Amino acid sequence: MSDHQTVQTNLQTLFSPLKIGNKEAKNRIVSTSHAVAWDNGTGLINDRHVRYHERKAAGGAGIIMTFGSASVYEESAASYGSVSLWNEENEPLLKDLADRVHAHGALIMSQATHMGRRADSSVSGRPIQAPSAIPEGVHREIPHVMRTEEIPPIIQSFAEAAERLERCGWDGIEITSFSGHLIEQFWSPALNHRTDRYGGDFAGRMRFSIEVIQAVREAVSSDFIIAFRMTADPKTDALDLDHKDMLDIARTLDDLGCIDMFSISGGTGATYDAQAAVVPGDTFARGTYNHVAKNMKEQLSVPVLVAGRNLDPSQAESALTNEDCDLVGMTRAIIADPDMPQLAQKGEFSRIRPCIACGECIGRLYSGMPVICTVNPAMADDSLDDLTPAQQQRKVVIVGGGPAGMEAARVSAIRGHEVHLLEGTDKLGGKVYFAAMASERPHYGRHIKWLEQELDRLGVNVHLNTKGTTDNVLLLNPDDIVLATGANPRNDHYVTDVELLDGKVSINGNSKVLIYDREGKFRGSSVAHFAAEKGASQVEIATPLWSVAEDLDEMQKPELYRLLTEKNVTMSPNKHLRTTKEGHHVLEDMWSETKRDIEQDEMIIFIGYEEGDNRLLDQLKSAAPELDVQLIGDAVSPRRLNDAVSEGVRVGSSL
């Protein structure tokens, strides 16, 4: 038996069909529901949505679930870029999307919800609604208490949304309580203080969800799938509900005989740390919620889907054979590479572009921005997915082996060019290589390893330990030159984070480290945590911003703060780093002007004090003005990793 056949056999459960209600999924891989915020706040689907979900179906996923937090009720203030299922204007593209997904043999379903107190009235102007006047710990807005007579129209709106989806050719609906939405709020004794028929004891608190599910079942045919998504572990006591309570709730809903599938995950939106667990990042274990999904599966009568850090096909297969679940949500893995299912089925594992768990996708959404993917720019701009062969082969010389240069080399080689990549050190990856050394980001370096494998597969000529000098570049007689030379520190007198991570600067029990961070993202805090892990006696992260990691999204910040607190890292916001006339460094509070003298033996590391290295650009233009020289990545200006990768694709596509 060949290796290819062995791989196929080893994934036989993952690629086996599954009956769900009266329909059949061709395999067990699911892209679960998520918003993308591409609607410009209108709640309307556009062609970009359609192409995005069709692309995942074309890549081989068995079920495409769409539109996270899709709103069923016009009077409810939606958020997170959710689609309005109540709006009939969406029907033409709903039909088009269903047809295009079906053409690839996949099933298509939409999430449907009322967000309750988890919504936000700041944009819509409509008051948010909830069972009781208890604000959420994250959004903090006091909701309008729903009157008894206001509840039936909301129940009916769920039924009408399901009816619309079936009329438009969809296979099913996913009703959700997950992440602290309205249904979960009714369940919670801590959040539901009602005295009418929708509150009080367990039966009263369950009534709203039961009536929603029954209304939906009555509105659609028996062929239409009804799924239900819920948390199995809220990761907080703020709901006064634990895993056992959630199991009781799931059994009660299962007994209705209306639900065809349960979708199980964890966390809730009630607190910052529980919200971070909703889309668990790299500090969470692989298969974070598989064990609680298994408990659910053992006691429920219908298929169970699990979502939460099942990262690759072999892990998904193990979850299935271990009977943790019947279907596996692999959403971020599919965002990183929509062809993951097809490549896995063919046994081409090394070609699958890996998710690096950086959180840029969901993090941007929670920061009010459209979703993108750090390692797959085509997720947000599908024109970058079309790498057509070049009409004429050219010799392309790329200087700099960081992510921008590597991606430009990969795309240029795919298009058929002869590519030479010059890297001045003995390793590829640039600063990402060193950032991946941080213990809280174990998957961060997977993209660099994948790029290395791809460059080798595509025959890129990689020249390590080769400086990007004018002579070295021109010696190769290039037709095109791409400079991905990165960024350099603006001051050579201080230790850099790369020197610390690389071990060129040692840390011991006597070390005192001050990180001065004006970026306000992940990098500064990660370096502070690294120094503390290495045993420094004193670590402080100071910033001129309102808070440490000010611009880091709220899905990543809770875990990062936890790590810093556990390591006793001092966090000092609103601080200026000053140098006195005598040459001494002081840390000065921005508002009180109180000062702390920085000791002579304190190691100072600056974060955010860099500038693009474009020296070679002028030298080459002077030496060979006839050549086309392009500058990309941090060499243009120091930015996020996804910007560098995106520029690498764009430049490679244009050559």
Question: If you had to describe this structure to a student in words, what would you say it looks like?
Answer:
- Residues 14-347 form the NADH:flavin oxidoreductase/NADH oxidase N-terminal domain.
- Its cofactor is [4Fe-4S] cluster; FMN.
- The chain folds into three domains: 18-383, Aldolase class I (TIM Barrel); 387-489 and 611-654, 3-Layer(aba) Sandwich (Rossmann fold); 495-608, FAD/NAD(P)-binding domain (3-Layer(bba) Sandwich), CATH 3.50.50.
- It is built from 23 helices and 26 strands.
- The longest helix has 18 residues, at 202-219.
Outline:
With 655 residues, the protein is α/β, with parallel strands linked by helices. The chain contains 23 helices and 26 strands.
Overall helicity: 25-40%
How many domains? The number is: 3
CATH topology of the largest domain: TIM Barrel
Shape: globular
Uncertain segments: 1-9
CATH homologous superfamily of the largest domain - what is it?
Aldolase class I
Neighbour order of strands in the largest sheet: 3-4-5-8-9-10-11-12
Q: What's the CATH architecture name of the largest domain?
A: Alpha-Beta Barrel
Strand-pairing-aware structural class = alpha/beta
Biggest sheet statistics? 8 strands, parallel, barrel
Task: Count the E strands.
Answer: 26
Q: Radius of gyration from the CA trace?
A: 26 Å
Protein name: 2,4-dienoyl-CoA reductase
Domain NADH:flavin oxidoreductase/NADH oxidase N-terminal: 14-347
Pfam families: Oxidored_FMN (PF00724), Pyr_redox_2 (PF07992)
GO molecular function, one term: iron-sulfur cluster binding
